[in-house]
Amino acid sequence: MLKNMFKKTYTLIDTKYKELSKQQPNIPKGLWRKCRKCGQMVYAEDVKSNFYTCPKCDNYFRVHAYRRIEMTADEGTFEEWNQEMEFTNPLEFPGYEEKVQAAKEKTKLNEAVVTGKCIIEGEETAFGVCDSRFLMSSMGHVVGEKITSMVERATREKLPVVLFACSGGARMQEGCVSLMQMAKTSGALKRHHEAGLLYISVLTDPTTGGVTASFAMLGDIILAEPGALIGFAGPRVIQQTIGQKLPNGFQRAEFLQDHGFVDKIVSRKEMKETLGQILKMHNTVKVFDCEETKTELGITGVEYKKGKEKAWDHVLLSRKADRLTSLDYIQAIFDDFIEFHGDRYFGDDGAIVGGIAMFHGKPVTVIGQQKGKNTKDNIKRNFGMPLPEGYRKALRLMRQAEDFGRPIICFVDTPGAFCGIEAEERGQGEAIAQNLFQMSDLKVPVLSIIIGEGGSGGALSMAVANQVWMMEHAVYSVLSPEGFASILWKDSKKADQASEVMKMTAEDLVKLQIVDQVIPETVPACEEVLTELAGEMETRILKFLADFGRMTDKELVEQRYERFRRI
Hints:
The protein is of the alpha/beta class. The protein has 23 helices and 18 strands.
């Protein structure tokens, strides 16, 4: 009997405890949010003030369309277009209409994308934002129609387009009609591009399926939020199909940048400023005033005076570990440099750096072959020897410059193109050949400056320019002196003798009319004379841009062709 009494008492206490443990604290709705990554409850206001980023683990929360607009557009400038569009159920899919209606009531949106016009950092642009709350922002007819209509209106009004992509892909309930939206949106963007207008695509988490295979990956410039899932097939589908575990970070934004498909990863805190900067660079008048330049700077031609060094001395100086690199000059001469990554085919090559910058208030494209300054950096930069994807990245940026009328400044510094199995597998010769082929008729001014080693076709692929300049202690040759001596004399130790007969110094190449100007080095180029050298280079570049900026497209192409034709 006593045993039964204890048992009943224990059962009563246990039941009461379980009931109490299930009770939730009386917390006002919306005051806290749970982070899906770290599992912590975080104060909602802290999340909002931190650009919808978890203050404990930096995980990005997905952002509603109108919140994204608040974060990006200048206050009070957003004007919505096509807020209401008629719903269609082309396949008469059972339950589809009810599903869409439920999404409308939950999100207070008409569809999965909001489009319109706004001002970002003072720059007017057409603006679209996908919202994942609405059927995972899948693309059906209305989504495709809203995006296409926005792009068409932007084309008519000569506006750039900024579009934040986020989607689970095609909308299954609309079948092939959904599939056709991929072609429709892409066609509208092609016309926008042909009109010479800028399209910036911003990839957010997640961007997958038919959206990735259409408007999301067609940006002139493609930005991405850190850690965003980006891919065509979802990782679960891929893993099940191939039966293999996927690598860490697979299909994340960083993976896409490493593989050449994203120009730049931008945090939410920096997104508005970055977009405004890019828009400003593309909206700025690009003509350099020649008369004003001459008057203010008093530019005159500079004669090259022969130094006392032997050719081999120049070779050694061009290879010095402390010699100034492309990035040194870019950062010293240009303002607001934004580096872009990737060839949009395979990868991003650290041996080539490039992007857009401001120069005396005008936008330019700058590209350089980049060596490292220590062992770790040299490995990252492949010792300044570009792979095929490096040359393809450079050419992509040059083509982009041509599309938007920006002059191109190239800094050449490479022992030569990378010689290896992977380079041959990916088409090293074809990549270099395409650069020579395409650079020959670029319809913008092109200037190439050899700042260190100018090795063979690896250097020439960045030096098909209207003018080619050299630093005094730079070299430019058909191949390295060691290779020359090895081929002709079967003895690479005779490299110093080879350098004398190869005519590879600035003095030699001016006489051969292969180089147009030489920039003197009173002290071999290093950090202590960067300001002096950058100032001299800046003055000359300004004159070049003023002179060649007056030429027509046809004159630029013809001058470049004749420059090489006479050699």
